[in-house]
Write a structure and sequence with these properties.
Layout: H1 2-23, E1 25-27, H2 28-35, H3 39-51, E2 56-58, E3 61-63, H4 71-75, H5 79-89, E4 96-101, H6 105-111, E5 119-124, H7 127-133, E6 139-143, E7 147-149, E8 154-156, H8 158-164, E9 169-174, E10 178-180, E11 184-187, H9 190-201, E12 203-209, E13 221-222, E14 231-233, E15 251-252
Parallel strand pairs: 4-5, 4-9, 5-6, 9-12, 12-14, 14-15
Antiparallel strand pairs: 1-3, 2-3, 7-8, 10-11, 11-13
Helix pairs in contact: 2-3, 5-6, 6-7, 8-9
């Protein structure tokens, strides 16, 4: 019986990690119902996974460990949420002029959906995002070069900052490693945060594209204050209670 129990728990924990990889978050009630076990059993599973450094427990469940990851790995997390966010963000993409995209996989999802534009210049410090735009009619993608941030597959450093500041942008579309209702956004990489801030200095507006698994979380490098941004776009309905702490501080979409 003990062996069976261990086998069952290991299988359940593997599936919990798969849920986390796909959705970006594990919620206790949903996981308990899915596996037909008590919330306490799920808590013990999450505690064991946290001790192995595979996730981070939060109130009501768990979220992914905040840390630098390559673009391809980040793109696989919370895919449905990123698609919903990209659909909403399309309303803010102009037909022409110039905009900036950061190196996040969420913004990368938006880049692959631009379709036909009139005459739109899009600067980005992500090769993957640049590649996603190359076939779009009426879109002129510009790759901001520099030093390679291996952990995140982005271009950073003095050259990237100088290049980012060589244009003026109507809007900067950016995600973040985490967002807190008091302190704003934070990043896992200081050098990547510096490039985002360079884009922002040349932009009229800042559009935040952040999935709900990152709400009320904090990472290391300072990003943006909430009052810097025009709107916060998540996959949630703006009336969702998880957004209550942000409701009076920024427009929600």
């Amino acid at each position: 019986m003990a062996t069976k129990s261990t086998t069952e728990s290991e299988g359940r924990r593997a599936e919990l990690l798969a849920m986390l990889q796909h959705d970006g978050v594990v919620r206790l009630p949903e996981a308990s119902e899915r596996f037909g076990v008590s919330a306490m059993t799920i808590r013990r599973d999450l505690e064991a996974l946290e001790s192995d450094g595979l996730l981070r427990r939060v109130r009501g469940g768990a979220v992914s460990v905040i840390g630098p990851r390559p673009f391809g790995e980040r793109r696989a997390v919370a895919q449905r949420a990123k698609e919903l966010i990209a659909d909403k963000a399309m309303a803010f993409v102009p037909q022409g002029g110039s905009i900036a995209f950061d190196a996040s996989s969420t913004v990368g999802t938006l880049a692959g959906r631009l379709g036909t534009r009139a005459a739109l210049i899009v600067a980005t410090n992500s090769y993957q995002t640049y590649s996603a735009m190359r076939g779009a009619s009426g879109v002129d993608p510009i790759l901001i070069g520099g030093e390679t941030e291996v952990a995140t597959d982005s271009f950073v450093g003095p050259i990237a900052i100088h290049a980012a500041e060589s244009l003026r942008y109507q809007r900067l579309f950016t995600s973040a490693s985490a967002i807190d209702s008091r302190f704003g956004t934070t990043e896992v990489s200081l050098r990547e945060a510096e490039v985002k801030q360079a884009f922002y200095r040349m932009s009229r507006e800042l559009i935040l594209l952040i999935d709900s698994s990152k709400l009320e979380q904090q990472s290391t490098a300072v990003g943006f204050a909430l009052h810097d941004a025009t709107v916060l776009i998540t996959e949630l309905n703006p009336s969702d209670a998880r957004l209550d702490a942000f409701r009076d501080r920024i427009e929600l979409r």
